[in-house]
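If your schedule permits, I should be very grateful for your opinion on a structural question. What I wish to show you is a protein chain and, alongside it, a tokenised description of its three-dimensional fold. Would you kindly read the sequence against the tokens and tell me how you understand this chain to fold? Here, with my thanks, is the record as I have it:

===
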Amino acid sequence: QVQLVESGGGLVQTGGSLRLSCAASRSIFSINAMGWYRQAPGKQRELVASISSGGSTNYVDSVKGRFTISADNAKNTVYLQMSSLKPTDTAVYYCNVHQQLGLHGYDYWGQGTQVTVSS
């Protein structure tokens, strides 16, 4: 069983920066994509950023130009650099790894890390 361990969340003022990390407990083969999701109180979980196995990245419009997703495959780690943070970024952030084995897809999730941006 693969475990994803997140770190880097915390409390920051508006305009500040945080870097989230998500490390897998072991190497995961056939990764299709990795991503970061977030869920604010009373809201649905949303995809914030993703990076494909080929290195292509996608971002939700609200974080474009402020967040950067990256991955270190040798360390089985995915990062989310967050800058110019806003109170609306406050949420629990979850990392996700999607593994595709033929026709079967498997999703692994981290436990979540709280990000709170004060105004």
Summary: Residues 13 and 31 are 35 Å apart (CA to CA).
